[in-house]
Amino acid sequence: MPRKTSAPSPAPAAPAKKTSPTAVAVPETGRVDAATLDALMRADHGDPFSVLGMHHTGTALVVRALLPGAAEVELLDALGRRLCALTRQEDSALFTGAVPRRRNPFEYRLRIRWTDAEGRALEPVVVDDAYRFAPLIRDTDLYLLAEGTHHRPYEWMGAHPQIHEGTGGTRFVVWAPSARRVSVVGSFNQWDGRRHLMRRRHECGLWEIFVPQVGEGDLYKFEVLGADGVVRVKADPYAFRAEVRPQTASVVQRLLPGVAIDETRRQANALDAAVSIYEVHLGSWRRGEDGRWLTYRELAEQLVPYVRDLGFTHIELLPVHEHPFDGSWGYQPTGLYAPTSRFGTPEDFRAFVDAAHAAGLGVILDWVPGHFPTDAFALAEFDGTHLYEHADPREGFHQDWNTLIYNYGRTEVRNFLVGNALYWIERFGIDGLRVDAVASMLYRDYSRRDGEWIPNRHGGRENLEAIEFLRRANFIVGTQRPEAVMIAEESTSFPLVTRPPSQDLQSGGLGFHYKWNMGWMNDTLAYFSRDPVYRSHHHDQLRFSLMYAFSENFVLPLSHDEVVHGKGSLIRKMPGDDWQKFANLRAYLGFMWGHPGKKLLFMGCEFAQWNEWNEAAQLDWPLLEQAPHAGVQRLVRDLNAVLRHYPALHQRDVQPEGFAWVSHEDAQHSVIVFERRAAPDEAGHAARVLVICNLTPVVRHGWRIGVPQAGAWRELINTDQAVYGGSGVGNGLLESEALPWQDQAQSIVMTLPPLATVMLVID
């Protein structure tokens, strides 16, 4: 039987609503009042989700879309069927309309015909409306973020590409508690702050939005209408990637998968391990033929094998956080969560770390939680208030570096920084963080005159909030990622830097694993820079470090700071003619590798580069074609080899039982002798290495030295060997005699080579 094709009978009419004689029934259109429309058009509406998107007004289901630059807008259902046209309210960019025959909210899309710069209509495109999606942040995470105890805030903050309700896009979340309005702007919305006004989560001052069709590689920033009424366009504090300078936009980037805890790496970072660190600035280690930077992957192919071949155990990188100014070397970061795009993508940096680990090398990052630059696109006055920094310049401004100081007393700021420490370890497999400028964090009067700083709540100079932050950061890293280490660049006598904090983090030590021994560096550089004729008067500079060598767990640093800004290279610091300069440097390195403490050497020092470091150019690699420079490099390689293979030189670096003086009083001849001891074996025997330094250019024949053990002693290292560029003065096997000397039961007679360090072992 044929179906009827006539129109269906109309539904029964609803009862007529009683109205006053002058009332006129107006169909629902979704139009908003003038004040709301004005706020939307000025991008000054604090709750855009209450207006935009799909809403039930009580009489109808309406859709509103704020689309500057649109000519026509149509409403579609989930299958792409047209439901109605949205009409422009007056001459604004707000399009509104009532949904026919629908009472409950549903999934919908918009078909938009945009206009070009000349006002011509373009082909229509179909998009999902950002305002039809519900909030994404879970209540538990909101609570932890508000409390400042979320160990991994980066999992929620920033930009995260994802599938939400079956739609691909990116979730954006930013902290701006005092902002009147926040928008995400980017390449996907013509950087127009009216297009994607964000939803405020009042619980903790977060703003969020899910923007469909936005994915990896899209550029974005946050447009913030501050509490002061000023609009600021800010890079994302949690961005995982950024544009190459001088551009400053953040880049949508997926969060890399986590790296499992590695027991092998934990053992390699332990206090009893051989640790020898090669410090590197990636932009100036080596460059391409055209002077360009090498990429992370090219550095994995070139730098990693080089460091492994020289026998170092770790690579330490000057900061790879994103930073706008090359001359800051990364120490003025604007993107703590973004590996600098100068050398590639986050995936490329992860590949570099993986290559280092495959070669048996650890990777340490210089980490800068002490200050940040004043650049307008970054953290400064982020929401119109001093959000990340202190408001009072006596607390919040570094006079030395013209930078801003984090407000460590604010829980969200501490959370931002502690989460960043875990981020590098958990998402890139970083083995440790060397925390920059710790001394400047610990003291409120650091580099300030009277009246330029504010005492703490007890009237003292210590920065109690920074101390608590450091304890918390070290505790969290130590408990969450026990394979990683935290290293302090700390130049004062602040106590217990490498001792654990109390259980409540309110007292005890700071919790670092290691501390740079800046005192050792300053004293020994001053000593070795002197003409040998004057060294007898400064003998204490050579031995004073052993008065406190075991008060902390020390790293001995000859870092980038010692070979820049007019200080000259290591080789140029040495006195005498060229031969003596090289001899002094070789003796210094031998002394350093024999001294208790882990080792750190800046790039270029391993082959005695003449020029001081220049971040804008590569190292002077042609010098390796000259024998003296190649000799220093070979010495460093051999020092690292004996450090690895002789436990006496590393196992008890932080224990007084691992060191003993044999002779330290002979200032007249500038000779010192000491021994390094390994832990006793089951039979009670402790392997030993004897270290002898003759720091004058005089060969000393028939020199008697007390030895702790009878037997035949042989040279393990002699920095005067001809193969290193020395004069070749050395010793064969040295049989001990039962002649007590220097408080030892045995002694040997040897020749001391000039300006040299000799290491002896007994087989």
Automatic annotation (TrEMBL):
<dbReference type="InterPro" id="IPR013780">
    <property type="entry name" value="Glyco_hydro_b"/>
</dbReference>
<dbReference type="InterPro" id="IPR006047">
    <property type="entry name" value="GH13_cat_dom"/>
</dbReference>
<dbReference type="InterPro" id="IPR014756">
    <property type="entry name" value="Ig_E-set"/>
</dbReference>
<feature type="domain" description="Glycosyl hydrolase family 13 catalytic">
    <location>
        <begin position="279"/>
        <end position="637"/>
    </location>
</feature>
<dbReference type="Pfam" id="PF00128">
    <property type="entry name" value="Alpha-amylase"/>
</dbReference>
<keyword id="KW-0321">Glycogen metabolism</keyword>
<comment type="similarity">
    <text>Belongs to the glycosyl hydrolase 13 family. GlgB subfamily.</text>
</comment>
<keyword id="KW-0328">Glycosyltransferase</keyword>
<protein>
    <recommendedName>
        <fullName>1,4-alpha-glucan branching enzyme GlgB</fullName>
        <ecNumber>2.4.1.18</ecNumber>
    </recommendedName>
</protein>
<dbReference type="Pfam" id="PF22019">
    <property type="entry name" value="GlgB_N"/>
</dbReference>
<dbReference type="InterPro" id="IPR006048">
    <property type="entry name" value="A-amylase/branching_C"/>
</dbReference>
<dbReference type="Pfam" id="PF02922">
    <property type="entry name" value="CBM_48"/>
</dbReference>
<comment type="pathway">
    <text>Glycan biosynthesis; glycogen biosynthesis.</text>
</comment>
<dbReference type="InterPro" id="IPR017853">
    <property type="entry name" value="GH"/>
</dbReference>
<keyword id="KW-0808">Transferase</keyword>
<feature type="region of interest" description="Disordered">
    <location>
        <begin position="1"/>
        <end position="23"/>
    </location>
</feature>
<dbReference type="InterPro" id="IPR006407">
    <property type="entry name" value="GlgB"/>
</dbReference>
<dbReference type="GO" id="GO:0003844">
    <property type="term" value="F:1,4-alpha-glucan branching enzyme activity"/>
</dbReference>
<dbReference type="InterPro" id="IPR004193">
    <property type="entry name" value="Glyco_hydro_13_N"/>
</dbReference>
<comment type="function">
    <text>Catalyzes the formation of the alpha-1,6-glucosidic linkages in glycogen by scission of a 1,4-alpha-linked oligosaccharide from growing alpha-1,4-glucan chains and the subsequent attachment of the oligosaccharide to the alpha-1,6 position.</text>
</comment>
<dbReference type="InterPro" id="IPR037439">
    <property type="entry name" value="Branching_enzy"/>
</dbReference>
<dbReference type="Pfam" id="PF02806">
    <property type="entry name" value="Alpha-amylase_C"/>
</dbReference>
<dbReference type="InterPro" id="IPR044143">
    <property type="entry name" value="GlgB_N_E_set_prok"/>
</dbReference>
<feature type="active site" description="Proton donor">
    <location>
        <position position="489"/>
    </location>
</feature>
<dbReference type="InterPro" id="IPR013783">
    <property type="entry name" value="Ig-like_fold"/>
</dbReference>
<keyword id="KW-0119">Carbohydrate metabolism</keyword>
<feature type="active site" description="Nucleophile">
    <location>
        <position position="436"/>
    </location>
</feature>
<keyword id="KW-0320">Glycogen biosynthesis</keyword>
<dbReference type="InterPro" id="IPR054169">
    <property type="entry name" value="GlgB_N"/>
</dbReference>
<comment type="subunit">
    <text>Monomer.</text>
</comment>
